[in-house]
Design goal:
By secondary structure, this protein is an alpha/beta fold. Helix content is 41%, strand content 19%. The chain has nine helices and ten strands. The longest helix is centred in the middle third of the chain and has 18 residues. Helix 3 crosses helix 5. Strands 1-7-6-2 form a four-stranded parallel beta sheet, with helices on both faces. A three-stranded antiparallel beta sheet has the order 3-4-5. A three-stranded parallel beta sheet has the order 8-9-10.
């Protein structure tokens, strides 16, 4: 095969995204990134926008081929975190205290059994212990499922906020307690279905930390 040319396209972050995410994390907000991107891309974006720090320990529930594999891996991560993680301190990784993050993918999450109370508890406990959760290769319905899980099962009950800029984010925006849509290059579907519409991601800081506080 002879290549006639190669084109590279960079999907750049909006202004101040890393700074806003850092401020939200300082405020004690657990951030879940739900995306259709592939795993490598999602992890790289997570690092570039402060969801993952250099020393963050990553747990993977991804690339699993069966419901049994998914159940075993989810339980394994749950047991590891409950054994080594201490709230307000961090994860003890052979004497080093680190923050933790979960990376999961849609093809594996399809084996998640919503009626299995153990799996629901394991996933939520892991998520609550993490600095952030990165869920990649998700369908719009899977995004909605994850928002619903956090909204309904967290004790004490969590208030969920979903923010997105595309048509594939509409279902999770409508599922959350508070939906925020960004006017973007992908159209106005997200903004039209949201409780609040903003022009750029950086405006989320003031919306949450100033108006949300009031």
């Amino acid at each position: 095969m002879d290549l006639l040319g190669i084109t590279a396209i960079e999907d750049r972050l909006q202004d101040e995204v890393p700074e806003v995410i850092a401020d939200l994390a300082k405020a004690g907000i657990v951030l879940w990134m739900l995306t259709g991107d592939k795993e490598e891309t999602a992890v790289n974006i997570g690092r570039s926008c402060n969801l993952l720090l250099q020393d963050t320990k990553l747990f993977f529930v991804a690339r699993l081929q069966s419901a049994m594999d998914y159940n075993l891996r989810l339980e394994e991560v749950y047991l590891d975190i409950t054994k080594n993680y201490q709230q307000n301190v961090g994860y003890n990784d052979n004497g080093q205290i680190k923050e933790v993050a979960l990376v999961m993918d849609g093809p594996s999450f399809k084996y998640f059994d919503e009626k299995n109370l153990d799996q629901r508890k394991w996933l939520l406990t892991i998520g609550q212990s993490c600095r952030s959760v990165i869920a990649c290769r998700l369908t719009p319905i899977q995004k909605q499922q994850l928002v619903a899980l956090v909204k309904k099962d967290t004790v004490p009950r969590a208030t969920t906020l979903s923010i997105g800029d595309g048509a594939n984010d509409v279902s999770m925006i409508r599922e959350a307690d508070v939906g925020v849509g960004i006017f973007g290059k992908e159209g106005r579907q997200a903004a039209n279905n949201a409780d609040f519409a903003i022009g750029q991601f950086k405006f989320l800081r003031r919306l949450l930390l100033v108006h949300g506080r009031w």
